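cron nightly-structures :: item 1 of 1
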Amino acid sequence: MRVEQREWERKQLDKEMRPFRQAHRQKQPTQELLRAVRQVLGLPMEELARKAGVSRSVIFRLEQSERRHTISLSSMARVANAMDCTVMYGIVPLSGETLEEMADRKKWEKRLGAGSTAAS
């Protein structure tokens, strides 16, 4: 039953993560989302800071930390919420394959030995 449950959960995650796999395939993924969204909404940094309950310098530092990939999810969510948005994130295989395909490949690699491939 445990294997069946894991397979069902993997299929559910594959469905849920489909848009993220597609986004991952793009040549230039979106960078600096907080700043980009703030700018396209025409939301001045001062107004966003007021809505988030922080100072303008905090918003500036958060945008910088996102650029450096050091922002926390809770901070990102707080700023997104102040822009009437939400943060969505996903974890997808770097190869672009589904979790199901990745699990099958790993299973076959284990069965055939670490140095073997299915094509060999």
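cron nightly-structures :: done
DSSP finds six helices and no strands in the chain.
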